[in-house]
Amino acid sequence: MFAISGYKFSEKQSTARQEITMASKPIRVTVWNEFRHERSHEQVQKIYPAGMHAVIAEALEQHLGEAVRTRVSSLDDEEQGVTSTVLGQTDVMTWWGHAAHDEVTDEHAERVVQRVWDGMGLIVLHSGHFSKPFKRLMGTGCGLRWREAAELERIWCVRPGHPIADGLDAYFELPQTEMYGELFDIPEPDELVFISWFEGGEVFRTGCCWTRGKGRIFYFRPGHETYPIYYDANVQRVIANAVKWVAPRSSSPYVTGGHHEPESLSPIAAKHEMDASLHE
């Protein structure tokens, strides 16, 4: 242990050890699903008898093994599946919603948003583009063009060096999907990993990355409920890779909102008396 110009190397080494410990712990993933279509629509029930969330969770366990711990939650669970306890024990949340976006309360949506700011990773799937948490984090309408016609989708990797693209070829295909087309009303992605071409001619930004606060966000388009898309090995690989990429990387605090700092770190020469009424 020694110091040079005020640097304490023991503290720096302690921080490094903390980061290694975070990286070595299993990633705690909560797979959130609206879970309505699987209980009300016969075709969806046949494809996902236990729900899409069950298939996604099982796929993550198969692909990531001991590196992950999964739990599932849904809209009809206690506090819509996003209790403070659940969120506090979640490093990464995947989100699938469609028919019941408006049923998610503003309070519960805001809980998810706050956790992303604090560092929780969020993977938004398919029609989750219109969910309250995603729209709040994007700050845009998040609308798009769509068509359900059982058409071929070809998904091209446009950033092959990205960790989310690890293990994938230049492109992969889904034989029957719902079409999503541009314009996709989102902020410019920090990184664009995949684009889709559809048999009917449209294209779409299918794999998009952002950072909000300390949290990383990945939007991935495939996943219409009437097709067995979450059984596809390439789709599973993308989601598993995304879990690793969005997982928290730092334990440092993220302070939001405005905070008055009446005491300065260094002396200030000017004499000034603040009018507190201006800040009430």
How would you sum up this structure, described in words?
The chain is of the alpha/beta class and 280 residues long. A 9-stranded mixed beta sheet has the order 4-3-5-6-11-10-9-7-8. Strands 1-2 form a two-stranded antiparallel ribbon. It is built from 8 helices and 11 strands. Helix content is 28%, strand content 27%. The longest helix is centred in the N-terminal third of the chain and has 16 residues, at 9-24.
Short synopsis of the structure:
The protein is an alpha/beta fold.
Topology at a glance:
Layout: E1 3-4, E2 7-8, H1 9-24, E3 27-33, H2 37-40, H3 42-47, H4 52-64, E4 68-74, H5 84-88, E5 92-96, H6 106-118, E6 121-125, H7 132-138, E7 145-157, E8 171-181, E9 191-198, E10 203-212, E11 215-220, H8 233-246
Parallel strand pairs: 3-4, 3-5, 5-6, 6-11
Antiparallel strand pairs: 1-2, 7-8, 7-9, 9-10, 10-11
Brief descriptors of the model:
280 residues; alpha/beta; Rossmann fold; 9-stranded mixed beta sheet; two-stranded antiparallel ribbon; 8 helices; 11 strands; globular
Through-space gap between termini? 48 Å
Radius of gyration: 22 Å
Question: Could you state the order of secondary-structure elements as H and E?
Answer: EEHEHHHEHEHEHEEEEEH
Shape, principal axes of CA atoms: globular
Portion of residues in beta strands equals 25-35%
